[in-house]
Design brief:
Elements lengths: L6 E6 L7 H12 L8 E4 L2 H6 L3 E3 L5 H8 L15 H13 L2 E8 L1 H16 L5 E6 L15 H21 L3 E6 L6 H4 L14 E3 L7 H15 L2 E6 L10 H8 L19 H14 L8 E5 L13 H20 L4 E7 L7 E6 L1 H4 L20 H11 L10
Parallel strand pairs: 1-2, 1-4, 4-5, 5-10, 6-8, 6-9, 7-8
Antiparallel strand pairs: 2-3, 10-11
Helix pairs in contact: 1-3, 1-11, 4-5, 6-13, 8-10
């Protein structure tokens, strides 16, 4: 056991989730009894808090409060979208040196993994002994190497339940309903919309994800066919659906309307928080189906940020796994001179079982993971049973709904 003496810093980054604080508490509880780590410092708003030396003394937080924090959604330490460059990292190292920080844990997605990678490489170049671990988090479920990410199961449970209830609403007052779901590059979360279906007559009847080029004319044909068959149609759409040139439909729409396309420090286009895509698709359907259906009822909702942080409805599997990812990162950091990202490996076979491993930061950073083709139907407007089998253990048991017609 190579237990280096020095203080630890924990930060949270990117979009919050319903279980991100489980990972935070997993790290804290593992480090708390370690005499070689005098201080556990929580960075208030990620790397931004580090350079400003805005820290919370986490060793002083009692167990009861920690357990309540673990069950609380969103980033308890505050999150950040900052992308550290070389100059930013130099400021981080000065703070680390000043506070004798030798352990750094960063909880976040692929951009956060990249930030951890940069910090780690800068530490190596400066011969500063620092153990850096990225702890996975994202409702998008698009990190490479890992089977899935903490946060996805809970968000998927929320989306599946919301669609199941909305489907019953749609059946009560038939029409066309479009629901826009988070997912910039990958359709994992949008796909979860199918998990609460009572039977095949229930929605969502059509599912559109960024992995399949979106064609508005084919979209109208798909809806026409479904509406003619069922007298209604519920549709799940990823916010990041793109055309053949991989340009998001929402970006094309914004540019056509003369709106500024907002981007964050990582270069990601701002897609959430706007109902523009849903309104556009709704209006497009109305204008292209009005000849046959004079009084067509078309509605659109954008789920937006509600999918990330909600209280009391997290997946129990997700909660357990998020906590264990934090624990595993702390255990590996204490056990030897290693850095990396925690990944989950699913055992083969019908029984759901997960093991936790270390991956290289460079293998997780920046890049995203698409849904495999085996999870998408041939028509490009739905998902397969293979996806349902994959996702069902992650979201946990859903409400059992009934129907009379």
């Amino acid at each position: 056991m190579s237990m280096m003496k020095g203080n630890a810093v924990i930060g949270q980054s990117g979009g919050p989730t319903a279980v991100i604080n489980q990972s935070l508490v997993g790290v804290i509880e593992t480090l708390k009894g370690c005499k070689s780590i005098p201080k556990i410092l929580g960075a208030n708003h990620g790397v931004s808090g580090i350079v400003k030396e805005k820290f919370i003394d986490l060793k002083k937080v009692d167990k009861t409060t920690l357990e309540r924090v673990a069950d609380t959604p969103a980033a308890a330490l505050g999150s950040s979208r900052d992308k550290p460059d070389e100059a930013y990292c130099e400021r981080i190292f000065k703070v680390f040196e000043k506070n004798d920080v030798r352990y750094f844990f960063y909880i976040g997605g692929n951009d956060s993994a990249d930030a951890a990678r940069i910090v780690n490489e800068m530490a190596d170049a400066a011969n500063y002994e620092l153990r850096v671990f990225h702890i996975p988090k994202t409702i998008d479920n698009d990190l490479r190497v890992t089977d899935h990410t903490p946060g996805y199961g809970s968000a998927g449970r929320f989306v599946a339940s919301a669609f199941a209830g909305d489907d019953r609403d749609s059946a009560s007052l038939p029409g066309i309903k479009i629901n826009v779901v988070m997912g910039r590059h990958a359709g994992w979360l949008t796909a979860a919309s199918v998990l609460g279906k009572i039977d095949e007559t229930c929605g969502p009847h059509l599912v559109y994800v960024p992995e399949v080029p979106f064609n508005v004319n084919q979209f109208v044909e798909d809806v026409r066919e479904t509406y003619a068959k069922l007298g209604r149609c519920q549709i799940a759409v990823s916010e990041g659906i793109s055309d053949e040139t991989h340009t998001p439909i929402a970006v094309n729409l914004a540019e056509r309307l003369g709106h500024r396309v907002e981007r964050d420090s990582h270069g990601n286009v701002q897609l959430s928080g706007s109902g523009a895509l849903g309104d556009f698709l709704s209006d497009f359907l109305k204008s292209n189906m009005k000849e046959k259906y004079k009084t067509l009822r078309v509605r659109a909702d954008t789920f937006g940020y509600l999918q990330r942080s909600f209280a009391g409805y997290a997946s129990s599997v997700d909660q357990i796994e998020a906590r264990q990812c934090g624990r595993k990162a702390a255990e590996l950091a204490l056990a030897g001179d290693s850095d990396g990202s925690i990944v989950m490996i699913r055992a083969k076979g019908n029984t759901y079982k997960i093991s936790y491993k270390r991956a290289e930061l460079k293998d997780v950073a920046r890049l995203t993971k698409d849904m495999p083709k085996t999870f998408l139907n041939k028509a490009g407007n739905g998902v397969t049973q293979a996806y349902v089998n994959y996702a069902t253990p992650l979201v946990g048991e859903l409400p059992k709904l009934g129907k009379l017609f």
